[in-house]
Structure formats: C-alpha cells, structure tokens
C-alpha cells in the first residue's frame, strides 16, 4: 500500500493527521482515541493520552497490524532471495553473477531494516 492510500485509510477511520513525523520512517503521525501512532511502522514511539481501556485496545491492534505487515514483507523478501540464489546457482556469465549478487545484497539490507 502506498503512503497516500495508507494516510487516506487512517483519515477514513477517523484518525487525525498531526504535524509530527515518525522519527524512524518519516511518515506522518496520526492520533485517534488518545493514541499517537505511525501507521507505517512499529518503530515509532506510541503515546497513550489518558488511561482508557480503549486506548490500550487500539495500541494492541496497531502493534498487531504492524507485525503482520512486516511478516508479509519479510516473506516476500525471503522468496526473492531464494529465487535469486537458485538463479545464481545456474548462472555462468560473470556480468549476470554480479547483478544477481548485488540484488541479493540489496534485499538483505532491506530485510535488516524491517
């Protein structure tokens, strides 16, 4: 999901976009039911305003959604890495070997930050 769609979805759920940005990913921070959160990642600090049970439920839901998104991303990256290793195994042209290994390195870097 792209950033605009993600932000639109949060606004449609009744969240308010704040003038703050996530210190981890740079995405705008949203607020709903006393919670400030980043819908893009789980690395951002989440603040609970007040002491309501509803806020705790929202926080749990946000964390579960972020974990699920990251799991999906990791599965995709792992599949691509496996695919590239299978291609690397049969490749004999040095230029293609370099392209494949470079792609694997890039995917491993991305995986590290998820």
Report on the architecture of this protein:
There is one protein chain. With 114 residues, this protein is of the alpha+beta class. It is 59% helix and 14% strand. α2 (53-90) runs antiparallel to α3 (94-112).
Quick take:
InterPro entries: SSSCA1. This protein has 114 residues and is of the alpha+beta class.
Total DSSP E strands: 4
Beta fraction: 5-15%
**Gap between N and C termini:** 16 Å
Oligomer: single chain
Largest sheet: 4 strands, antiparallel
Q: Specify the helix fraction band.
A: 55-70%
Stretches where pLDDT is under 50 for at least 5 consecutive residues are none
For the residues shown, what is the average pLDDT? 80
Order of helices and strands: HEEEEHH
How many alpha or pi helices? 3
Tertiary shape: elongated
What is the fold's blueprint, element by element?
Elements: H1 3-12, E1 16-21, E2 28-32, E3 35-37, E4 47-48, H2 53-90, H3 94-112
Antiparallel strand pairs: 1-2, 2-3, 3-4
Feature tags:
single chain; about 110 residues; alpha+beta; 2 domains; 4-stranded antiparallel sheet
């Amino acid at each position: 999901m792209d950033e605009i769609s993600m932000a639109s979805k949060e606004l449609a759920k009744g969240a308010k976009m704040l003038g703050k940005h996530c210190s981890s990913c740079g995405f705008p921070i949203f607020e709903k039911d006393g919670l400030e959160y980043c819908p893009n990642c789980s690395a951002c600090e989440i603040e609970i305003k007040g002491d309501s049970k509803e806020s705790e439920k929202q926080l749990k839901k946000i964390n579960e959604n972020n974990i699920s998104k990251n799991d999906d991303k990791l599965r995709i990256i792992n599949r691509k890495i496996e695919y590239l290793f299978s291609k690397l195994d049969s490749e004999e042209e040095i230029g293609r070997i370099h392209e494949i290994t470079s792609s694997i390195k890039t995917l491993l870097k991305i995986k590290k930050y998820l």
